[in-house]
TrEMBL record:
Residues 24-99 form the Blue (type 1) copper domain. GO terms for molecular function: copper ion binding; electron transfer activity. PANTHER family: BLL1555 PROTEIN (PTHR36507). This is Blue (type 1) copper domain-containing protein. Keywords: Copper, Metal-binding, Signal. It comes from Linnemannia hyalina. The lineage of its organism: Eukaryota, Fungi, Fungi incertae sedis, Mucoromycota, Mortierellomycotina. Pfam families: Copper-bind. The keyword Signal applies. Residues 1-19 form the signal peptide. It comes from the Eukaryota. The keyword ATP-binding does not apply.
Length: 102
């Protein structure tokens, strides 16, 4: 039983070590890249390099950055495999997708 717990803890620690950070830049009223492919457990960081405030808001509501001011960032870790469409609430034509697949 102890071995089982030890292996489980080791697996969780390794997953954190190998979790990647993906950067989405917000520039010229676009999310770049528009589609980001990640593994479950990875983190996505949105950085606003635009002159206007923006948000990164999941269409289905699973994450919401709130206002990201110029020069600021927002990060979210995606724990499950899913394809999530998101948008900017201020500029609804700004669309992006996070594809988390193992
Ligand atoms: Cu916007």
């Amino acid at each position: 039983m102890y071995i089982f717990y030890a292996i489980s803890i080791l697996a969780i620690l390794l997953a954190q070590v190998f979790a990647a950070v993906h950067v989405v830049t917000i520039k010229d009223f676009k999310f770049v890249p528009q589609v980001v492919n990640i593994n479950p457990g990875d983190k996505v960081t949105w950085t606003n390099n635009d002159s206007a405030d923006h948000t990164a808001t999941a269409d289905a509501g699973s994450f919401d950055s709130g206002l990201i001011a110029t020069g600021k960032s927002f990060s979210h870790t995606f724990t499950t495999a899913a394809t999530l469409s998101y948008h900017c609430t201020i500029h609804p034509y700004m669309l992006g997708t996070v594809k988390a697949a193992s």
